[in-house]
Specification:
2 copies of one chain form a homodimer. Chain A is α/β, with parallel strands linked by helices and 357 residues long. Helix content of chain A is 51%, strand content 11%. Chain A has 16 helices and 9 strands. Chain A is globular and about 60 Å long.
Chain lengths: 357, 357
């Protein structure tokens, strides 16, 4: 590829090609644990202003790759941009997480939903992608992302975060056709949105199915996995996105790896509650795997942290196809020095295990 | 057994003996969704007064079995009574969950912990068990319970609830010997506590490992499962408790069923993220299974609720050894009528599936 970045470990690993060492990036790497992020966030005034101002979103996208030897950048944004563009009115209350002014509470509201045009209604995201891709100047690849259809629907129906998102679950039981309509609109919106991010310069894509794991197995297959497959297939069949690796991350869905691996994605993200070696044996050569250190490990000593990083890399083994990451987003309350330790431990042990092989 | 209760479906199912239908009880069945509970709770003045006054605890223990055709009662108490008896000072802030005045923040504090004598320091629990057993008068069996060593330690070290209990995880990585000391004290305390509940009249026991599922697999085996095994073995080797069925419930630990089934317990509790038919195939004839309807299903219509109950019973099949339950505690915001629907659906479909067999 003409525009392959200088450091292509991440993209090669997603394609299960050999690399000199294990690539690493960190979910939420542009975030509150970084003092420079907090400074930009303060300048922006609010989280949404930060996310909706392409220059500022680009700035925080670059911060972690400037400070640490990470192998990928991910555009700074929120998983709920799509429902916001659909008119639900995303807002944030400090310490309470995302909320919607107009949650979906009637069949009419659900039937009235339309797929937003990303290049107009989500322009701030595609502009941030264009800017970040330009500013990265080939240093590392840039990841675009979206929330999954199910996860978007959780917030759209509940109107805010929840332990169990029981409103959407009850809807899915009582009005399955209406629920499928909602999820299909979301899936088509995600496809258009991810495609626009690729057109703007994203070199890999990730779908965060944060709440898929709250579903019972048959409900997961029917209401979450099915729409992840719809997305993967659509991206595969579009020449623009066919060669862009897609990572699916269903948190808490370790029981569903086989089904997800057959979706047509390039890689699966794993949370930390599954052994990555077992996961690799289960999915075989079908997909690459991304993960899966317990984020709480960053609160331990550097010595213990190095041991745990080593254990994850050893569990995967010296095969191609591992992107190191945490099993969930990095938390704000960690020692910055430990992030450098983590990145160094991945790269040095990743080299070591390949030399032994 | 001379003192076998009139309705022994629950105990027979735990021993994988045939029953006329599937027995059912509901985690948190004595709780806020019941108006009579809220009335008693109001009279008590505080949750802790309610839990620590045997007459009141007995009263709310009986309320659900008086209103619904449930097949077991569970003594009303809290999972954190043991650390409270160790001197950590349990208290509750409305809407914030349990907290400790004296969380464990030093090695000295951990080394100073001692196993409480249940008959003096947790007398309010054994008195509640004695009273409830007497008042039930053989109507249904009475379950005693405790939090698991790991779950107790989560709160003891963190001092309150947490998304990730990272303090204890970091301690387990940085000071494994000290962590094992803490967990061993907790395990011995749980054994003494459960044994005292049996001496007071409990006819089955359950250990709630609410936060075991937050652990990575090897950490789960080392820091949670190991101590569940210690408890199961100790109870098996004591003539007083050897014939009392023990249910282990590790929420989010569907990947660990085989290891837990080998612990010496009678049954495993399952959350709703695993198919109970798959679980049965995995554990075979080793243990009974309890579960596992998604609690959110109680927020759907009676028609959908009946279908979902039926699906869980069908997934287990017509074999002996199924105790129906939710996959987690019942939530306050449900229609009481749906609880009656659930119980009726279990009993009627449980009969039906046995007739087909």
């Amino acid at each position: 590829m003409a525009d392959r970045p200088n450091n292509d470990r991440f993209l090669r690993a997603l394609q299960r090609q050999p690399t000199d060492t294990t690539p690493v990036w960190i979910m939420r790497q542009a975030g509150r644990y970084l003092p420079e992020y907090r400074a930009t966030r303060k300048r922006a005034g609010s989280f949404l202003t930060l996310a909706k101002t392409p220059e500022l979103a680009c700035e925080v996208t670059l911060q972690p790759v400037e400070r640490f030897d990470l192998d990928a950048a991910i555009v700074f944004s929120d998983i709920l941009t799509i429902p916001d563009a659909m008119g639900l009115g995303l807002y944030f209350v400090e310490g309470e997480g995302p909320k919607f002014r107009n949650p979906l509470r009637t069949a009419e509201a659900i039937k009235a939903l339309a797929v937003p045009d990303p290049e107009s209604e989500l322009r701030y995201v595609t502009d941030a992608v264009r800017l970040a891709r330009h500013e990265l100047d080939g240093k590392v690849p840039l990841i675009g992302f979206s929330g999954s259809p199910w996860t978007l629907a959780c917030y759209m129906v509940e109107g805010q975060g929840s332990r169990d998102f029981a409103r959407l679950k009850a809807l899915s039981l009582d009005q399955p056709a209406l629920t499928h309509h909602l999820l299909d609109v979301n899936a088509r919106a995600v496809i258009a949105y991810l495609t626009a991010q690729v057109a703007a310069g994203a070199q890999a894509l990730m779908v965060f199915d944060t709440w898929g794991g709250l579903l019972a197995p048959s409900a997961f297959r029917e209401f979450s996995q099915r729409y992840l497959q719809q997305i993967a297939k659509a991206l595969q069949h579009n020449p623009l996105t066919a060669n862009i690796p897609l990572i699916l991350f269903s948190k808490g869905a370790g029981a569903h790896l086989e089904g997800l691996a057959d979706s047509g994605c390039a890689a699966l993200g794993l949370d930390w509650t599954i052994d990555i070696g077992d996961a690799r044996r289960r999915v075989g050569e079908r997909v690459a795997l991304q993960g899966n250190l317990d984020p709480a490990t960053l609160q331990a000593s550097p010595t213990a942290l190095r041991q745990e990083v080593t254990a994850v890399i050893d569990a995967f083994g010296p095969h191609p196809g591992h992107v190191f990451n945490l099993g969930h987003g990095i938390t704000p309350n960690i020692d910055l020095e430990n992030v450098a330790v983590l990145v160094d431990a991945v790269h040095s042990h990743g080299r070591h295990i390949r030399q032994l092989d």
